[in-house]
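DUF7352 domain-containing protein, pasting as requested.
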Amino acid sequence: MSHQRVYKLAFLPGVTEMGVNLSPSAEVIHFAAQDNNLCLWYIDRDDADGRKPRAFSIRGTGHDIEDTATYIDTAFLGAYVFHLFETTQENN
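Structure tokens follow.
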């Protein structure tokens, strides 16, 4: 029997890019600050096949964003506002 599970990824301080292998059905469900770190939560299946790298970027208000980036959510950390985007990865 397969199950879905909620996972959390924390961005280390100063890190603005993160790649993670996810199944095609994985869904990002939230982006917020927790314990003074920016985190994203996603749902994925334990036994999912076909995992592929997906890339995520954090941008502050007023910062440049790639034309192909897809907005996901906004998080507040103290006086700062951060925006999470999924970015496309080039296949070499």
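Note for the archive: The chain has one domain: 4-87.
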